[in-house]
Amino acid sequence: MKLTLWLNDKKVQDEIAPDMMLLDYVRSKGCYSVKCGCETTNCGLCTVWVDGKPMLSCCIPAARMEGRRVTTLEGLQKEAEEFGKFLAEQGGEQCGFCSPGFIMNVLAMVRELKNPTLDEIKEYLSGNLCRCTGYMSQLRAIENFIAYKKEKGEL
Amino acid sequence: MLKIKNYVMPGTIEEAYELNQKKSARILAGCGWIRMSDATVQTAIDLSRLGLDKIEETEEEYIIGAMVTLRQLECHKGLNDLTKGAVRESVRHIVGTQFRNCATLGGSIFGRFGFSDLCTCFLAMHTEVKLYNAGRVSLETFMTMKKNTDILTHIIVKKIEEPMIYLSQRNTATDFPVIACCVAKRDGKFIASIGARPKQAKLVVDEEGIMKTAVSEEVCQKFAEYVAHNLDFGTNMRGTAKYREYITKVLVKRACQEILEMEGK
After folding, report:
1. Across the interface, which of B3, B7, B102 has its CB nearest the CB of A59?
2. Among A8, B20, B233, B265, which residue is least crowded by beta carbons within 10 Å?
C-alpha cells in the first residue's frame, strides 16, 4: 500500500506492507537512532514524535502515519547535541543504548512542561528504561539543561 | 506481531461497522499490544480517521471519543476537576508518556481487560458507552456483555460531582496493577470498583449502609471487609488471591478515609 508522510520535514512516499510498523519504516529510511529495545512496548527506545508528540514507533502501524509529521533524533540534531553535552558532563549517557529514545522524550518534555518539578520530570520520563540504571546522572543532566535554557530565555 | 493482509482507514463509522462484520476483521485502536499478538487478520480497521479523538462537553456530560488517548485524559482539566484527579491518577502509572500518547480509552474499555485501570476508574463514575449498533448502555452492563462485532464509538460521563479516590498497588512502577481500586460516593452511597483481581473490575455498593453510621477508622475498615467479602480474587504471576484480598481491604479503607477527609469529616 502507498504511504505519504513528512519525515524530519521531508515529504516521503513509499510502497509499504500493510503490517509494517513505523519503527521499521523509519529505519528503512536510514533513521537508525530509532531502535527496538524490548518487544513489549515498554522501554521507550523507539520514541519518535508524531505531530510533535512523543510516541512509541514500535506499536504504530506505518500506514496510520499517512499525511502525518514524524520526527526522529536525526531531525533534531542541533537540540540533541545541545542536551547531549549536559548528559555527557554528568556521565549520564552511560552505555548509550537508551540515549536516542531518552533524548527524544526529554526534548518533548521541555517543550510541553513549564517549570517541571523533579517528580514531574520522573513521571514524564518513566517510560524510558535505562538498563545501566543510572537515573540520577540523567536527572542531574536534565536539571542543569533546564536551568541553562531558562538562563538563555529559551524556556 | 499481528500480521495484517489488508489495512483500511474507513471514512465513516458505518463503513467501519460493515467491514467489522467479517470474522477475519479486527479493529485497531491504540495498538499498545500489537507486538504481543501473533494472530493474522484479513482486514485491519483503523479508527483513527473518524474524528473519535475528541473530548466534547455538554452541560450534562463529557462525551469522550473512543480514540481519545490516555494522555488526553490525564491532561484534561474538566474531567480531572470532576473526579478530583482520579482519572489522572488512574492513568499516570501506565508505562510512560509515549505509551499513553498511543493507547486509547476505547481500546481499554472495549477490551474489558482485567488489568485495566481505566475500566476500574470509569466504572465508579456515572459512565455509559455508546456502541454504533446497540446504542447507549451503562458501563456496568457493558462489562458483562460478550465481545461482538459492534463498534464502541464514545464513552459518556455524566457531570455529577461526587467525592472519588483512585488507588492502585503495583509490584513495580509502570507495571500492571496487582489491585486497582476506585472508591466514590454515588447518589449518597459509598461504592468501590475493584479491578485487576486479576479478573475485570466489579462494583460493590454499600447496600448495608455501613458508611452511613458514625464515621471512624473502624467503619472504614468494616466497609473494606464488606467489599472484599463480596468479591472473588484470583492468583497469577503478580500476586496470589490472598494477597489481593488483603491489599483490597487496605486500599478501600485508605480511600474511604481520604473521602471522609475530603468531606471534612
Report:
1. B102
2. B265
Domain identity same for A46 and A104:
no
A64-85: per-residue pLDDT in tens?
999 999 999 999 999 999 999 9
pLDDT (average), residues B16-44 = 95
Helix axis angle, A135-151 relative to A99-112, nearest 10°?
A: 40
Domain that holds residue A47: 2-74
Supply the range of the domain harboring residue B198: 164-262
- What is the ipTM, given to two decimal places? 0.96
- d(CA B42, CA A4) in angstroms, rounded, equals 23
A58 to chain B: which residues are within 8 Å by CB?
35
Residues A112, A138 contacting (CB under 8 angstroms): no
Inspect the interface and report whether the beta carbons of B6 and A18 lie closer than 8 Å: yes
**A contacts of B31 (beta carbons < 8 Å):** 59-61, 64
The per-residue pLDDT for range B169-186, each reduced to its tens digit, is 999 999 999 999 999 999
Q: Are A19 and A30 found together in one domain?
A: yes
Distance, in Å, from the CA atom of A101 to the CA atom of B215, rounded to the nearest integer, reads: 50
- Is the entire prediction scored with pTM above 0.90? yes
Q: Which residues of A touch B173 (CB under 8 A)?
A: 126
Q: What cell numbers appear for B152 in the block?
A: 464502541
B100 in Cβ contact with B69 (< 8 Å): yes
How many distinct structural domains can be found in chain B?
3
The domain tally of chain A equals 2
